Amino acid sequence: MEIFYLVVFGGLAAIVAGLELSKSNKDRINTSSAFNSFKNNYLLVYSLMMAGDWLQGPYVYYLYSTYGFGKGEIGQLFIAGFGSSMLFGTIVGSLADKQGRKRASITYCITYILSCITKHSSQYKVLMLGRVLGGIATSLLFSAFESWLVAEHNKRGFEQQWLSLTFSKAIFLGNGLVAIIAGLFGNFLVDSLSLGPVAPFDAAACFLAVGMAVIMSSWSENYGDPSENKDLLTQFKNAASAIASDEKIALLGAIQSLFEGSMYTFVFLWTPALSPNDEDIPHGFIFATFMLASMLGSSVASRLLAHSSPKVESYMQIVFVISSAALMLPVVTSFLVAPSGVKGGSISFSGCIQLMGFCTFEACVGIFWPSIMKMRSQYIPEEARSTIMNFFRIPLNIFVCLVLYNVDAFPMTVMFGMCSVFLFVASVLQRRLMNVAEIHKSRLPEWSGAKEMTSEADPLNPE
């Protein structure tokens, strides 16, 4: 393996270690033993779920290519996954609110295990079925677990600030450390043991099965709105009404869609971007490096969230601008660095520059996840949390599907440029969200004071 990859990985590891070891008491939150037990149980489950997801990530594109499919056909398979998440996401989100988040989490495990099994077939229709199942599972992963956590946290009466601690730790472990280990483990299975690109999917199914057993034995059930007289259509209407009537929720949904849309497009593009001439790159190790960068970001986020200032709505504006600049690098290098005409070989100089930019973007992803979770816990109403969160994924999935459908029609630089623009727009909307939230908070004391004056004037009417 080239020294360049080791230097980047080692440098990021040193920074993360320095950040974690240098934390002072001001950067930590004092909690109770009951909360620590609750938090550790959730972190164990979340880490196992993310291990099942991350093991697959670096090898999806690679597996399809070994089966002989081209970029266009692979793009259609990816479209099936995102389209499935768009079509079924709101339904499974509403069912999670109504039927229970624990049941939804177990359903995620079963669905994703079935998706992993389909990877053993080289038949296009079977792989398409696997992508549909994977899309349903993804909707559950990014709604049911967080909804269960927030509801259970509040039900047990823990302090609201402690929720930020669980979010940041979950991203640090599940989207950082576990992802790194998963990337290295996948690399070991495929390259060292020569078990082939399907081996990580088998390992993922095993982790998902263990996580499902932990959920079944240790989690209690909770609901969004368990009332029997509300069908799915009513839940959809209530969720849509909440988004339409509250600008903060609408802005949050737009911000999330713009960032995640760019992120998922990046997931599809990073492999061909770093190896445009079929350069030999270590997919698993690069993926582990990306996750280490994400781990760095989540470490920074845990420090920021432990303090009341700067507010999450404020610093996320800067994060979006930096991420926009990072994904603009492939466009810049295409003009400034002469492309290599040599097929195969090691990563090019342009690829090295892009890899540094991609690591910067992944660091922004590490800050984004706990921060968006914090904002969702503040602004999204509990009774329709999973439904609204999956509503947010509809424009995201439409955007990604359109990009992947036209993947052969546009140069890669155009797609990266588009993602960069969307991330800059997310920064502008984030500033708007901060202003709206501040205006809303400034009006609360006036409203409370008016209530007190009314109560004093009419003691028989406390309202």
TrEMBL record:
The chain crosses the membrane at residues 6-22, 43-62, 74-96, 128-150, 170-189, 201-219, 285-306, 318-341, 347-369, 390-407, 413-433. It is found in: Cell membrane. It is a multi-pass membrane protein. Mediates high-affinity intracellular uptake of the rare oligo-element molybdenum. GO terms for biological process: monoatomic ion transport. Keywords: Cell membrane, Ion transport, Membrane, Transmembrane, Transmembrane helix, Transport. GO terms for cellular component: plasma membrane. This is Molybdate-anion transporter. Pfam families: MFS_5. PANTHER family: MOLYBDATE-ANION TRANSPORTER (PTHR23516:SF1), SAM (S-ADENOSYL METHIONINE) TRANSPORTER (PTHR23516). Its main location: membrane. It comes from the Eukaryota. The lineage of its organism: Eukaryota, Viridiplantae, Streptophyta, Embryophyta, Tracheophyta.
